[in-house]
Amino acid sequence: MSQPGMLAAVCELIRRDILLAMRRRSDVMTTVLFFVMVASLFPLGIGPEPAVLRMIAPGVLWVGALLSCLLSLGRLFTADYADGVLEQMLLIPQPLSVLVIGKVTAHWLISGLPVVLLSPLLGLQFGLNAEALGVLTLSLLLGTPTLSFIGAIGAALTLGVRGSNVLIALLVLPLFIPVLIFGAGAVTSSASGIGAGAHLSLLGAGLFIALALSPWATAASLRIALE
Amino acid sequence: MMDRLHINWFKYSSPQAFYPLAGHLLPWFAAAATLLIGVGLYLGFFVAPTDFQQGQSYRIIFVHVPAAWMSMFLYVMMAMWAGFGLGLNARLSFMMAQAIAPTGALFTFIALVTGAMWGKPTWGAWWVWDARLTSELILLFLYGGVMLLRASIDDLRRADRASAVFALVGVVNVPIIYFSVRWWNTLHQGASVSMTAAPKMAATMLTAMLIMTLGFWLYSTAVTLGRMRCVILERERRSAWGVHQAHRDVLEVH
Fold this sequence. Notes:
The complex is a heterodimer of chains A (227) and B (254). Chain A is mainly α. Chain A is built from 9 helices and no strands. Chain A has helices at residues 6-23, 25-46, 50-73, 75-82, 85-91, 96-125, 130-157, 164-191, 197-226. In chain A, helix 2 packs antiparallel against helix 3 (50-73), helix 2 (25-46) packs across helix 6 (96-125) and helix 3 (50-73) runs antiparallel to helix 8 (164-191). By secondary structure, chain B is mostly helical. Chain B has a domain at 58-201. Chain B has helices spanning 15-47, 61-88, 91-123, 131-152, 156-188, 203-235, 240-251. Chain A binds chain B through residues 153, 157-158, 161-164, 167, 170-171, 173-175, 177-178, 181-182, 185, 188-189, 194, 198, 202, 206, 213, 217, 220-221, 224-225, 227, and chain B through 86, 134, 138, 141-142, 144-145, 148-149, 152-154, 157-158, 161-162, 165-166, 168-170, 172-173, 176-177, 180-181, 183-184, 187-188.
């Protein structure tokens, strides 16, 4: 029997996770609805002044994306941990860190991508113009995968730990801060006429750093959790 | 030649050997720390000249800057010991990381509080979302994360290793945080007062600050050694020598 390649294994893992998510669509919807509701709370709390809303929109939408990512992180490994799939993943010949890339990609497709696709709509509610909406979506497209990659480390570290839902927030949120700053900063600086190029480049650089380092740290954390 | 230089570096990597060594070193570090902090404070508060612009209020620099330096230095040290622990599978290294964390968090807290006390008279605000302040606050969160993660895992081996991984992840992030917030702030042209923009420092000021830093370093070492002894006793409470040591050092005192 021939061994499937690494890429095939990753693709299969992504396919499986998306299939599982589609069988339980309510989980996906919870994250997306949460994002919409958090974003809608701010105009209600702060008041409907258009100038103020336009100013706070990038930060609010980015914080909303960050929190909804956090909400779904708890599910990243727990089901596989509970039913023993994770232990099988440790045993198969493909390196665990590569499999982690598959898990994180699936997580982003399930919980990150819907947020990115919804963000222009919510941006409209805050009165952002077309250019700002474009930059916002692009910054979220570059930034949310980074959030998933960083979050995976926290999810693996807190696997099966008591109070893990709160703990994961405390571990991961400080690490999210640079992404938040560059993401929200991209929109703000494009609105002020400086251009979003520098911020978007840094977001892209952050994504590649996270892609290179996070699977490695996540795999190490999973091994620690399972030994 | 090589034979003569052969030193058993790993002798003190066993808790049983390290425990008495820490006990012997502790009073010396504590005494030196007291002396240097005393001298540093005297120089800073009484000898150093009054600042031309800020008057007396600048004198908190002699606590603030050394504390901020120590907070970052101790984080790197903690991550280094955590890395040794993971790489060499050495129990004592994990204990070292565990013992450093609270002192690092304390200095981060001191740096933030003294910064606020200094900020009020000079900037007119307790808190500004400036690069330095924000990165220091994140450092406090990272220390908190390391300690909380350790505290919430009951299995000691897993607690050691998980918090070590998190400490190492955090150290990768520290320079990123530091620079990112600085770029962000320059773009925003926020109200930022940085050390580099300060006027040239008088020689006595610099001396006092360096003495204070050395004093804080000695203090951190003394406290870490003391905490190491507690951690070792707590972890070795079931071993024969641990019980014996606890009876000798802890129970008989009371």
